[in-house]
Design brief:
3 helices; extended
Length: 67
């Protein structure tokens, strides 16, 4: 099996961009958002994280199936 490092690093770079975007675009609101997230139960955060991962997986599956 061949591991495509270029693709992996491209995806990692895109993840960094997407993670940093809210802090850049809405820096003033981020403390409020982070405070609200810190008040949620761990189960709610896990559900949110799992939902995001499944949505990403579905998107990748659809894109790969298209070509």
């Amino acid at each position: 099996m061949h591991f495509d490092w270029k693709l992996f690093l491209t995806a990692l770079g895109l993840a960094f961009i997407l993670e940093g975007l809210p802090y850049f675009l809405a820096a003033e609101k981020m403390p409020t958002v982070l405070r609200a997230l810190s008040e949620r139960r761990p189960r709610e955060l896990r559900t949110l994280g799992m939902t995001a991962m499944l949505a990403g997986l579905a998107l990748l599956f659809i894109l790969r199936a298209m070509g």
